[in-house]
Design goal:
The structure is a single chain. With about 110 residues, the protein is α+β, with helices and mostly antiparallel strands. It has a domain of about 70 residues: Winged helix-like DNA-binding domain superfamily/Winged helix DNA-binding domain (Arc Repressor Mutant, subunit A, Orthogonal Bundle), CATH 1.10.10. Helices cover about 55% and strands about 10% of the residues. Strands 1-3-2 form a 3-stranded antiparallel sheet. Strand 2 and strand 3 form a beta hairpin. The longest helix is centred in the N-terminal third of the chain and has 20 residues.
Amino acid sequence: MHLPTPRSGTADQNLQTLSAKARDASSFLKAIAHHSRLLILHLLSDEEKTVGQLEESLGIQQAMVSQQLARLRMEGLVSSRREGRQIYYRVTRPDIVIFLRSLFDQFPEPHES
């Protein structure tokens, strides 16, 4: 369901700005709204890693890691660089890291019973 776009002249300029920001925020949240993508972003928030390193850390198949990285790359949330045969991935913007840390802080660590 899409929110209506305010028309010029009928809506306050602030509402138009807020509407554009809401669309951007919605796209961002959709891009990270997957367990594996959140984990990948979290792992990349400290340092860049290769697909193999991510695969080992997450315990999921390389194809799944590559698929999730492709989505994150398409959304502009990660970028890559090649060094020889290795491709290293990193989070593109520091504000994404700040957001993720804040998000993860909202969920306390589970206590063992």
